[in-house]
Amino acid sequence: xxxxxxxxxxxxxxxxxxxxxxxxxxxxxxxxxxxxxxxxxxxxxxxxxxxxxxxxxxxxxxxxxxxxxxxxxxxxxxxxxxxxxxxxxxxxxxxxxxxxxxxxxxxxxxxxxxxxxxxxxxxxxxxxxxxxxxxxxxxxxxxxxxxxxxxxxxxxxxxxxxxxxxxxxxxxxxxxxxxxxxxxxxxxxxxxxxxxxxxxxxxxxxxxxxxxxxxxxxxxxxxxxxxxxxxxxxxxxxxxxxxxxxxxxxxxxxxxxxxxxxxxxxxxxxxxxxxxxxxxxxxxxxxxxxxxxxxxxxxxxxxxxxxxxxxxxxxxxxxxxxxxxxxxxxxxxx
Length: 334
What we know:
The chain has helices at 4-7, 20-36, 44-59, 73-76, 105-110, 155-166, 184-193, 204-210, 227-240, 253-262, 272-275; strands spanning 65-70, 86-87, 94-103, 116-123, 135-141, 174-178, 196-200, 220-226, 243-248, 270-271, 282-287, 298-299, 303-312, 317-326. It is of the alpha+beta class and 334 residues long.
C-alpha cells in the first residue's frame, strides 16, 4: 500500500509572484508621501518616523508572511522596522524583507534631492543578515561590466577592466563614491588613475543602481557604505544584471569580536548571490525628493503625484510607475 505521504507530497513553499510588485510599490508610495511632508523642515527623526509608520501600516495589508531581515534603524539609531519583526498579512509566501523607509533622511530633512523610500523582498532564508555589522566595503557595476571587477584588486586595475568592458578610456569612466572621510583612499586612487568622480552625500542604494542605468552615465561604485543598502541594492542588481562585491567592514574591535562570535568571515568577498541567494527578488522604490533615478513627491490640490521603480529578478522586468493619489478617498494610496 502506498503511504499517504508518498501519494500526497508536501507542496513546495509558495514563491513571491508578479502580483507582489504592485503591492510593494503601494508600500513605498505610502512611505514616500508621508516622508515628503517633512521635506526641508530640518528634522531627520520626524522624516524617519513618518515613513516607518506609513510603511508598517501599508505592509500589514500585503499578502506575505514576511520577516524583516535587514533594516536601517540599527545604523542610524532612528525609528525603524526592527530586525526580526513580522510584517505582512501573515498569508502568502514566506519572505525575507529588507527595508529602508527613507534612503536619504538627511537629504529629505534638508530639502535636497535624491531621497527614496525603498523595500526589497526575497524568498525566506535567502538574504545575508550582517546583524550589528552595519557597514560594508563595496564595488558595483552594471550589466555590461559585470564579471570584470575584483574588490580585492587595486582601484586602477578595476577602472581599467571596466573601461575595457565598456569600450571607454579610463579618463572617460565615472566612479560614484559616498563622500565620507573613510572613503578618502578611494577618492585619491580614482583621481590618481585619471578617472572621473561623482561624489554623493547620501544614497548608497540609488548609487549602486545608477551603475546599471545607462542614462545616469555612472560606470562603477566604490567605497564603504551601509550593509542594509548593500543587501537591498543586490535585490535590484539581480533584476538588471549588474554585479556587486562586498566585504563586511567593522568599525572597531567590538565589531570584530561580534563577527568572530557570529561566525562571519571578515575576509570573505560577498558576491551579489551571497547577499541575496534567490531567483525571485522584488525591489521597489519611490522618490521622496527629486534625484537622478526618480522624481520626488509633488503635492496637488487633491492629493499627490509619485514616481516609482519596481524590479523583478525572475523576469528582469523594470517598470517605472507614475501615479496620482487622491486624498479625498478612503485609501489615499490605493
